[in-house]
Amino acid sequence: MNGNRNLRLIKAFTLTELLVVMLIAGIIISGIMEGFSLVHRIILDRQAKITENMDVYDAYHHLENVITNSDSVAVDENNNLNFYRESDYQSSLYRENSFLTVKLANITDTVLKNVSSLKLIKSELPYISDTVAIDITYRDTSNTCWKFIIPVAVEKTFAHIMEEKEENCIYE
C-alpha cells in the first residue's frame, strides 16, 4: 500500500522562511497594484487630452460656420467682430479675458478658452478677402494661430452671368 503512493512530503517551513516568503509576496503584490494605479492614471490623462482635442475640434468647426456664412465683417468700438451677410447682422465674435465668445441673435456661446488675441487682418486689395486671426495658447504653452478667410461678397454668380448671356441667344 505504501508503494502505490507517489506523494512527497513537504518539509515544514521555519518561521523565518515563512516570514521571508510573505514579505516577498507582499512586495510583489504592492508592485502589481502600483502598476495598475499607474495604468489607470495614464488612461485618465489620455482621456482628458482626447476630450480637450474634441472641444477644440468642435470650436474650430463652429467658428468656421459662423465666419464663412458671412460676406463682410466690421470692427466696433469694443474690438468686437460683427459679421454681416447681405448687409444683415449675423453674429458677433469677441474676446473677454481669455475666452472667445460668439453671439448669435440672443444666444451667447463661449467657444474657446486660452485665446490670447483676436484680430481682423484687412486686405488692401478689393478682390482678396479679409482674414480673421485667432491666437490660442494651449496648456503645454504652445501657440497656434487659426486664420479664417471671410468670403468676398459676389454681386453676380456664374449662373446669373450665363443666364444673361443666354437671353440674347436663340436655340432651335
Question: What does this 3D model show about the protein?
Answer:
The protein is α+β, with helices and mostly antiparallel strands. The chain has a domain at 43-154. It has helices at residues 15-68, 158-167, and strands spanning 72-75, 81-85, 88-96, 99-104, 107-112, 115-121, 131-137, 143-149. A five-stranded antiparallel beta sheet has the order 1-2-3-4-5, covered by helices on one side. A three-stranded antiparallel beta sheet has the order 6-7-8, with helices on one face. The protein is elongated. The termini are far apart.
Secondary structure elements and their pairing?
Blueprint: H1 15-68, E1 72-75, E2 81-85, E3 88-96, E4 99-104, E5 107-112, E6 115-121, E7 131-137, E8 143-149, H2 158-167
Antiparallel strand pairs: 1-2, 2-3, 3-4, 4-5, 6-7, 7-8
Key descriptive features of the protein:
single chain; alpha+beta; 172 residues; three-stranded antiparallel beta sheet; five-stranded antiparallel beta sheet; 2 helices; elongated
Q: Strand share of the residues?
A: 25-35%
Order of helices and strands: HEEEEEEEEH
Major sheet summary line = 5 strands, antiparallel
For the termini, the CA-CA separation is 117 Å
What do the pLDDT scores average to? 79
What is the share of helical residues? 25-40%
Radius of gyration: 34 Å
The dominant shape is elongated
Q: How is this structure best summarized?
A:
The chain has helices spanning 15-68, 158-167; strands at residues 72-75, 81-85, 88-96, 99-104, 107-112, 115-121, 131-137, 143-149. With 172 residues, it is α+β, with helices and mostly antiparallel strands.
